[in-house]
Write a structure and sequence with these properties.
The structure holds two protein chains of two kinds. Chain A is mainly alpha-helical. Helices cover 45% and strands 0% of the residues of chain A. In chain A, helix 3 packs across helix 11, helix 5 crosses helix 11 and helix 9 crosses helix 10. The mean pLDDT of chain A is 92. The chains are: A mainly alpha, B mainly alpha.
């Protein structure tokens, strides 16, 4: 009789703790462990590229400022979402994301495919004061980003830690992290060539915030926003009627 | 407080504080101007301040020899004070962030005060600051009374309480500086996470050792819940926070979990933080303070067993309902949805068990605002668990996800259930702990009750309306088959609700401030009550005999 059994178990503290651990472990193990072993969980995308050091720094700023609290980066498999934001998100697109930034709330719109939809200039104006370009917006203004120099001294450490958790940065990328961050925001500098050489021809090298002399947090954040949804074209190839990936000209 | 410790224990406390101070010093030296170094200074100030307190009373008289034959209530009193301070802070941050959504210029053009940095100060302040300290207070109180045994340690309860609050302080000061892992409800960085593991393991051992001392053959049901809360939160915390720091001198790390697996781990954690922090722990409160306040025994032992194991087993499967229609594989979404719906059974078994316990005491619910707090908590528990199961159904989630409906649901639970059961428990606990006849002002309890009910209803109705409206606007099509509204149209429609929500939250904050004042005055002013038998643990001696140390 179950009641008899329970009267026994509730008389021993250790037994009770073990029973709790046993009951509570099953769900997590069954749902999480197979995600690492079932191959179909994450699609193959041979053209998938890595975040450049500047984009990774921008991603850190995105996290630091809590952007994920109001913006999702996960387009669901629903018609209205696909028509509003673009092809639904694939698991492979966040394969190198530690952590993922799928978000849970849309006080503002989804950003999974924001890259290339607006010009760098628009992003800078919008981040400086959102109400200058979207009068009804309730997004905070991030004026100080353009005034704050980007700390590139630690970028090598960031890439090294990314390596440690399984992102395939090469040692060459780690060694050149700071130079590549500078080069990506200074197209006419000698450092620019190394960025496309290491991270691919599709990397956007641009004077993001309009000022070439100083590398700012604004540069990094805009570089990150412009790469969102553009690490791979897999999502565009996957749909029944393939859409065109956005191709910015700025 | 220090007077309750012997000279040897005072020395041990100072040694522990010195070790923590040295760790802080090392952090400050290594980190420099990085937030890691700033946190080193925070650790030094905190441990140094407490050490100063201990030293101030170092030469005070030793405790009376009968110490071991009494319950250990000093840490509980301090935990209540911490809890109320965090409540006022956390709820104020909530009102401020809510107001920023309606009036974005309230960020005053600074980084530390912008919405994204303030939001975790609100969530951590109320969940871990207010809720966590209330859980520590009530767990320490309930385990002693229901086991008829004193806490199994002199310094360890203080270590748990003060160490836990150090974690909260490091977390919140970090958010202002932009230190975050971005994992919702697990934002603190690696060193704070490691520290919490040390504190939490101590908490677990202390709780277990106290139960092992019990003079009752059975472990009371409230302790089952406190135990599940402590054990499972430890598992969740460790797994979700596995990360590689970029350096041992920097406040930055990268989680080991990538993309889709990280999403699953995060919401396995996130949903079970709701389950085992905000549900199991507070059910522990319910199972003690409800019968005490209503003077009625729990309605059904069997329902208690059913709901306890149902909650412990089912909840851990439910996290994936946060990821419907995402890139998470369909089979995991299905499991999450199924178990979320099944979860209604143990949840309503708990709520039903509590309501049926009130049979024969409903006249007290009418007259006693404290018991009414507990009753309303049970009703909101029932409502929000029903809503939770409903929202976990995939097509419903298609409408509700990403909208304010989720926020409304969370607050129906957090305000209506968690805060109400906490205040009901505190109003029961405070007079008995400080040996008072009752609260300083029953009228103020009544005022708090109505402020809290009005605030919660305004908040929840505003968010239901805005969430459903938002969800519908996003998916409305014109007759030509194009989307009817831009995203901006849906944002503009939200403004009235954002203002209403901030107002509802403000009422709730005012209520919490009334409670803090009332409890403060109870401690200071209320007349003392006579000693009761329930205030003394079972020492195995005849009443009146001199207890041995």
């Amino acid at each position: 009789m179950p009641e008899f059994f329970h009267r026994k178990i509730e008389r021993t503290a250790i037994g009770f703790v073990i029973a709790i651990i046993a009951a509570a472990s099953v769900g997590g193990i069954v749902e999480i462990a197979p995600l690492f072993t079932i191959h179909q969980t994450v699609e193959d995308a041979p053209d998938m590229r890595l975040y450049t050091p500047l984009e990774l720094a921008g991603r850190d700023i995105y996290m630091r400022e809590g952007c994920y609290g109001c913006h999702s980066q996960m387009i669901r498999t629903l018609r209205d979402e696909v028509e509003r934001y673009g092809p639904y998100s694939l698991a492979v697109e966040s394969k190198y994301d530690h952590p993922m930034l799928w978000g849970s709330k849309r006080t503002g719109p989804d950003l999974a495919r924001i890259g290339g939809k607006y010009s760098d200039f628009w992003h800078v104006a919008h981040l400086t004061n959102p109400r200058d370009v979207v009068p009804e917006s309730n997004m905070p203004a991030y004026r100080w980003l353009a005034r704050t120099a980007l700390d590139t001294g630690d970028l090598g450490l960031h890439l090294r830690a990314q390596q440690a958790v399984g992102v395939p940065y090469t040692d060459e990328m780690v060694a050149n992290a700071a130079a590549d961050a500078f080069g990506q925001a200074a197209p006419d500098s000698p450092f620019a060539a190394g960025v496309t050489q290491r991270y691919g021809e599709k990397t956007q090298v641009s004077i993001f915030d309009g000022v070439v002399t100083q590398l700012t947090e604004m540069d990094a954040l805009v570089a990150y926003l412009q790469v969102l949804g553009r690490l791979t074209d897999a999502a565009y190839a996957n749909t029944a009627a393939p859409q065109q990936a956005p191709n910015p000209t700025n | 407080m220090v007077q309750q410790l012997t000279t040897g224990e005072r020395q041990n406390a100072l040694v522990i504080l010195l070790c923590i101070f040295v760790v802080g010093l090392a952090m400050a030296a290594l980190g420099g101007f990085d937030p890691f170094g700033v946190h080193g200074v925070v650790v030094m100030l905190y441990s140094g301040g407490i050490a100063a307190l201990v030293m101030k009373h170092y030469y005070d008289p030793e405790p009376a020899p009968g110490r071991q034959s009494q319950y250990y209530d000093d840490p509980i009193k301090a935990a209540i004070a911490f809890s109320l301070a965090w409540a006022v802070f956390g709820m104020f941050m909530g009102v401020w962030t809510a107001a920023q959504l309606a009036w974005p210029d309230l960020a005053f053009d600074s980084g530390w005060s912008s919405f994204g940095r303030l939001r975790p100060t609100h969530t951590t302040g109320v969940i871990f600051g207010f809720g966590g300290n209330a859980l520590i207070a009530t767990a320490f109180h309930v385990v002693q009374r229901t086991s008829r045994a004193r806490l199994a340690g002199q310094i360890s309860p203080w270590f748990v309480l003060l160490g836990y609050n150090l974690f909260c302080i490091v977390a919140v000061t970090g958010y202002f500086m932009g230190v975050t892992q971005s994992k919702e409800y697990a934002e603190p960085e690696w060193y704070a996470d490691l520290w919490l593991v040390v504190v939490w393991v101590t908490f677990f051992l202390l709780f277990l050792a106290t139960i092992a001392r019990r003079k009752e053959p059975h472990i009371y049901v409230a302790n089952w819940y406190f135990m599940a809360f402590i054990v499972v939160v430890a598992i969740l915390h460790i797994v979700n926070n596995l990360a590689v720091p970029i350096s041992f001198a920097r406040a930055r790390s990268y989680t080991i979990w990538p993309g889709v697996q990280d999403a699953m781990v995060q919401w396995w954690y996130g949903h079970n933080a709701v389950a085992f922090f905000l549900t199991a722990g507070f059910l522990g409160m319910l199972y003690y303070y409800l019968p005490v306040r209503a003077q009625r025994p729990i309605f059904s032992y069997r329902l208690s067993i059913l709901s306890f194991w149902g909650i412990t087993f089912f909840y851990m499967w439910a996290g994936s309902h946060h990821l419907h229609y995402t890139a998470l594989p369909h089979w995991v979404q299905n499991l999450g949805m199924t178990f979320s719906v099944m979860l209604l059974v143990p949840s309503w078994a708990s709520a039903g068990n509590a309501l049926l316990t009130l049979n024969g005491a409903w006249h007290k619910v009418r007259d006693d605002a404290t018991l009414r707090f507990i009753t309303v908590a049970v009703v909101f528990y029932g409502l929000s668990t029903f809503e939770g199961s409903f929202l976990a159904i995939r097509p419903v989630n298609a409408l509700s996800h990403y909208t304010d409906w989720t926020v409304g649901h969370v607050h129906a639970g957090a305000l209506g259930w968690v805060a109400f059961i906490t205040f009901g428990s505190l109003y029961t606990l405070v007079p008995s702990l400080w040996k008072r006849e009752g609260m300083y002002s029953p009228v103020l309890v009544e005022v708090h009750f109505w402020l809290a009910v009005t605030g919660t209803l305004i908040y929840v109705f505003a968010m239901w309306n805005s969430g459903i409206l938002q969800g519908l606007m996003w998916r409305t099509y014109t007759q030509d088959g194009t989307l009817a509204y831009s995203f901006l149209d849906s944002l503009v429609a939200m403004y009235p609700y954002y203002i209403a929500r901030a107002f509802g939250g403000l009422l709730f904050l005012l209520g919490a401030m009334v409670a803090a004042f009332n409890i403060w005055m109870t401690v200071r002013e209320a007349p003392a009550a006579a000693q009761r038998q329930a205030d003394i643990p079972d020492t195995g001696l005849a009443p009146g005999a001199a207890p041995a140390e």
